């Protein structure tokens, strides 16, 4: 037989170092362990054996508790006094698993929420004003540190980003990255964060990965547009990236409409031309550095245009990634138009959509465009390139940008002719040799270069022309382009300065924006209807098995797919004050002095209890061999009713509490498993009544105002009051254990309702706050409503609250025994103040001030 040991440190008891001390629950632990256990609510402690909350001497500690003499005597008999007992190490306590089930089909996982929640901007961070007849950009205001955008009636289907200007002259843009898949006319209104997560959850893993990389690059401020975060516009049901936009564009910094003024008589460049070429080379150097930095992070732009390049406040080159994405979307749209052109009349050239982009100084390499067309099943003559993501995409676009800056519009016109020749139309089938086209193009560019800047920069001209090679494998790397231009700006050899391996850079590339998912996002709203109505999400995964409660599914299983029926139970003539379920029936009390019984199968009215002379304020159901229903009224009357068919007209028992001038009736009821009825009253007392002989067992005094709510859990009674406190009482001897809320006078507000289970305590306040305790430690205090919360209920991990704002709010409570989080899921709007809530058996019961009871069920 093993000697008795402490349940905490597992040491055998002795009379010296491990002294057993007896707690009020009857269990024992050693003195040193009891002193080291946390005391979240002094002067109480959780028994390490049964987790019951019991009183603990303060400040004397465990030494003031009685010794367990019997355990000491038994331990001495079993232990060998001549041997030293080996110290045992405490095994790791298994983590307690929660039995809470799933409330709704997993539209988004906890991991998804944790990964993206910090990127979500507040709902009121961005304000769009769509009033006015003109379309365009309006002024912005910065209010209380929040980014506010003032736009005149903007076309949401356009490809251009929203642009605006803050009062401190910062430009920002909004780039659409997704559309909501939630139904607008659903009974259940998802929260702002919930709508953001629903859009992210419907994205593929590649889309989220690319978006994450985009956000990561935007947060590093490495000469690319800064990304503030994700914002959801409720009116357009769209998710946007809020992105910084610089004021100074490249076109404002230098006039490059006609390129650089020509060379001297002997073909050499004059001093002014050399300065201009050096300036363009410096721009090219910084562009190379930005592109190299992006490629080292695994990101290719894939295309560039003059609209993508701006200057920061220090006149350094800066790439606006949002413009790159918008340009990529235009290219994807042009690909679709090219496919239509190849199947239509001969008068429309297939290359015209790309030519239109070129006229706006937007450049995309042929191999990237051919790759997009190849994915759509369009073959480009005898051109055979490797279809893969290649750094050559950016090299081509960079060379086009620099040549456009140096030569001017003539280069753009030449590129338009070049692209028209690349596409074999039905009218002209003679041209098929792409190498010949490239040679012709280089000859024309060389002639224009000589006419513009002379023959002094032929090395730069040659490497830029090599960048335009149709074969991406023959193009130089960005590092080679950087070296050639850097030597022009500093007049020294830089061959040994940069040692970045171009092949290694190419191997590290993970995403190309133009080929990626951000550029292929549809502008159409995808409404989830048929898929989810059949129990499937867009990915095809079956969620029909989740959250089944008996035969029926949970209420929000239906709310999430808009398959919810709402039944109105009419019959009460005044506000609903209490709801309780038992024996297959719903019991509802009202200020009209009656209790009505409703059948849960078909929601028909079964019976009405009429025995109270005053307003019925609280109800409770007792599930015993003979089910009982208990009700209390504002006059102090308590009625016991038989809660089984046939229902009687008269109560089984009726009595009144003693009244005095302070008395305002019964406000709360609770039942203890020991056959005890507990009442909370207006006289600030909590009374315990025996359900055997209906006599008063005890009165608990401590609250300074009306006792508004009672809850029983783990042999502890929790009582809430208008005095802004929650008190804990031991149900064994009705002694006070602890007081919660006394030390928070600045945030004090009447506590109107309570919920408690094995580990969790939730209280709602008149100021709209919800407070959550886990293992007696306050974990969260959040304002869920803007006004008083009159009712709450909780089932599994879902918390419902309702009150003066006529809205039921749903919060998901998740976490572990050390940390709790509350995530807003959504809301249900009603047309009356909510006075009672109950969620049980997969149904949500809502009692209203107009006497109506609404039942939401799947």
From TrEMBL:
Keywords: Metal-binding, WD repeat, Zinc, Zinc-finger
Superkingdom of origin organism: Eukaryota
Start and stop residues of the WD repeats: 569-608, 700-729
One annotated GO molecular function: zinc ion binding
Gene3D superfamilies from the UniProt entry: Transferase(Phosphotransferase) domain 1, YVTN repeat-like/Quinoprotein amine dehydrogenase, Zinc/RING finger domain, C3HC4 (zinc finger)
InterPro entries: Kinase-like_dom_sf (IPR011009), WD40/YVTN_repeat-like_dom_sf (IPR015943), WD40_repeat_dom_sf (IPR036322), WD40_rpt (IPR001680), WDR86-like (IPR044715), Znf-RING_euk (IPR027370), Znf_RING (IPR001841), Znf_RING/FYVE/PHD (IPR013083)
Domain RING-type per the UniProt entry, residue ranges: 6-51
Record PROSITE patterns: WD_REPEATS_2, WD_REPEATS_REGION, ZF_RING_2
Coiled-coil blocks: none
Name of the protein in its database record: RING-type domain-containing protein
